[in-house]
Amino acid sequence: MSIFEALESQVRSYSRGWPVVFNRAQGSWLYSEDGKPYLDYFAGAGALNYGHNHPLLKQALIDYIQNDGVTHALDMYTVAKRDFLEALDEVLLKPRGLEYKVVFPGPGGANAVEAALKLARKITGKEAVINFTNAFHGMTLGALSVTGNSMKRGGAGIPLVHATPMPYDRYFDGDYPDFFYLERLLEDSGSGLNEPAAIIVETVQGEGGINAARVEWLRALSDLCKKHDILLIVDDVQMGCGRTGPFFSFEDAGIKPDIVCLSKSISGYGIPMALTLIRPDLDVWEPGEHNGTFRGISPAFVTGTHALRNFWSDDTLEKSVRAKGERLGNGLTEIVEAHPDASLTAKGKGFARGIEFADGDTAGKVCAAAFERGLLMETSGPDGEVAKLLPPLTLTDAEVEQGIEIIRESVAAVLR
Question: For a tag on the chain, would you pick the N or C end, based on fewer CB atoms within 10 A?
Fold first, then answer.
């Protein structure tokens, strides 16, 4: 590993927690170059919802490359893009009664967020945006301005302005009415709150600590936006593509955001791609007003098309994620209940789960113990106090049980 330490920047992070060289990956498993298997409850930070090298997606990609398919096309028309857009419309949008135009903003989730913020400000002529405590929306300047984590914000090196944080669901202890503070500020001409162009929200905060908003809270947020003529942006970069059960994480709440940000697993294969979905009446871009070189990566269109048609043409995967996610959640609850004096909390929904510990040091030790036992998971939360699980949606029942057992052993080893 000396070449990595010699040449790669100190900014590297995941490799510090998993100090092996990985060589091969298949399904829910990664293998180090010495052949040791690791059950992957990280899944590329949610970019590999269908596991590593899924055979259907891999074969589609191989066929496309062998037939000399166009690899890079900016925003030119290609067969691969047409196939993807048709699948998106037929499999996702029309069955859900959603009408969106599709912006290809660039290769990553932060690109999708930046496009959403830029468009909201262009449409409304307003600069301010409301975000939420413990939010994470990306590492570029606009996305950082609506992110809560102080360490990540500090890396910007300049003031991050034109965004105002508000309390996320259940941020306060006690019985407080939802949005009592935000709504009062919006209605009081003396509050000093700049009139917002948009509110951006994650339905489940992944990096923020696996904080899952109640559907009632999300509905109330949607109603508040409509009442005050504020655009609602849902950042579904990590929690979309089936992570919580339905394809879009906001479906259970029955809301229809004005703008939706997607990336991570939208290509299905871990190939970079991002989408910003916008209501048709919001499509006020001038040609070329928002662009980038890597908006037309055809291999991502190919695998994304096959992922949509193979996994989302019916509700089989959704039902599986709900059922197996419930089992995973129950397993974490059993672990928590086995340590009543440790102040642990099981959190999350679907296949976005976690255990909150008293501090980040304990959570980090649990993740390290799990790595020693052949399981990959990371920490999240403002102080890294949550052991975070994002397994592939294609996890088998046996792999669910195996993961629970490794986590059980790891927690017990650290807390003994």
Answer: C
Positive or negative, the Cα torsion across 94, 96, 99, 101?
A: negative
**Per-residue pLDDT tens over the stretch 133-154:** 999 999 999 999 999 999 999 9
Amino acid at 189: S
Is the pTM of the predicted complex or chain greater than 0.90?
Answer: yes
- The residues with which 198 forms a beta bridge, in sequence order, are 129, 231
The SS3 of residue 376 is strand
What is d(CA 203, CA 233) in angstroms, rounded to the nearest whole number?
11
Domains of the chain with CATH codes: 2-54+317-415 (3.90.1150.10), 61-311 (3.40.640.10)
The CA distances from residue 287 to 75, 111, 124, 155, 291, in Å, are 11, 17, 19, 33, 9
Those residues with Cβ within 8 angstroms of residue 47's Cβ, 6 or more apart along the chain or in another chain: 264, 265, 270
CA distance 46 to 66: 28
Cα angle 386-250-163, degrees, rounded to a multiple of 5: 70
Both tokens assigned to 277 = 């979905």
Please give the structure tokens belonging to residue 299. Answer: 């291999």
Write the pLDDT tens digit of every residue in 97-128.
999 999 999 999 999 999 999 999 999 999 99
**Own/partner long-range contacts of 19-26 (Cβ < 8 Å, ≥24 apart):** 25/52, 25/53, 26/51, 26/52, 26/53
Angle at 247 between CA 177 and CA 291, to 5 degrees: 95
Return all residues near 361 (Cβ < 8 A) that are at least 6 apart.
Answer: none
CA 208 to chain centre: 11
Q: Are 374 and 406 in contact (CB under 8 A)?
A: yes
